[in-house]
Amino acid sequence: MTDATPPRIFKLRVEEGSEWTLPLDDEDIGLFAGFDGTRRAATWSPVPMYLLRANEGRPLRPADLPWLGRHVLVLRDTAIAVVGPLLADHGELLPLACADANLVVFNATRVIDALDEERSDVLRLGPAQILDIRRAAFRGELLTGSAVFKIPQMLFGPLYFTSTMVERIRATGLHSGVTFREVGARPGATNPGGR
Q1: What angle do CA 108, 114, 115 make, to 5 degrees?
Q2: Pairing of strands 73-76, 121-125
Q3: What is the arithmetic mean of pLDDT over 79-83?
Q4: In terms of residue numbers, what domain contains 51?
Q5: Residue 146, number of CB atoms within 10 A of its CB
Q6: How far apart are CA 175 and CA 65, in angstroms?
Q7: Is residue 136 included in any domain, yes or no?
Q8: For a disulfide at 91, which of 65, 109, 110, 172, Cβ 3.0-4.6 Å?
């Protein structure tokens, strides 16, 4: 990849009408928000979770990748053996404690300073801190061999996926619960191959 052909990069988005997973204790949500690229397997204790199966009285569809947030990816038992190996070189799968399903959460351990801040549309708090990235551009030459990553400017922000990884996950057929939105795409634009 070169700057002449920047990679297509995606981030997670919730699939409307699909179930979510949430911690039993609201305080535990901070554990996931704190995933900053650091390996945690050696000290990890499974977080008690539940599946949110209805919203305002309407049932939600079962999801292979139940939504928790744009910063983490949760895999249900249907996806662990199929999608899990695709993610193995880019982080670790940490067990969750859920009475309704076997769940793991993916903790991305690759942090790559590939954001091209000059070509991106960012919202800043002062000169150094980025609050939000409205449109992201990446330096492709820094992403060779990395298919799932975080950026140091927003360690607690979204997971980023290359188009290659998105295609591999979609090819499994086990991606219900999340969709992938191209970060350079206009809001509301349709993603090729998306659902």
Answers
A1: 105
A2: unpaired
A3: 96
A4: 9-111+144-182
A5: 19
A6: 6
A7: no
A8: 109
Token pair 């554990």 is found at 31
Q: Is 12 exposed, middle or buried (0-12, 13-18, 19+ CB in 10 A)?
A: buried
Q: Is the pLDDT of residue 20 over 90?
A: yes
SS3 98: strand
**Sheet of strand 178-182, all strands in order from the earlier edge strand to the far edge:** 148-149, 160-162, 9-14, 178-182
Q: In angstroms, rounded to a whole number, what is the distance separating the alpha carbons of residues 142 and 137?
A: 12
List the structure tokens of 117: 């801040």
Task: Specify the pairing of strand 91-98 against strand 121-125.
Answer: unpaired
Task: Judge residue 143's burial from the number of C-beta atoms within 10 Å of its C-beta, 0-12 exposed, 13-18 middle, 19 or more buried.
Answer: buried
Residue written as token pair 């539940």: 50
CA 35 to CA 33: how far, in whole Å? 6
Domain count, the chain: 1
Q: Which amino acid is at 186?
A: R
**105 — phi, psi (to 5°)?**
-115, 135
As a residue count, the chain comes to 195
Mean pLDDT score, 25-52: 94
- pLDDT value for 137: 84
Instruction: Answer yes or no: is 92 within a domain.
Output: yes
What is the token pair recorded at 23? 């911690």
The backbone region for 137, taken as left when phi is positive above 0, alpha when psi lies in -120 to 50, beta otherwise, is: beta
Q: Give the span between the Cα atoms of 131 and 41, in whole angstroms.
A: 29
User: Is residue 188 in some structural domain?
Assistant: no
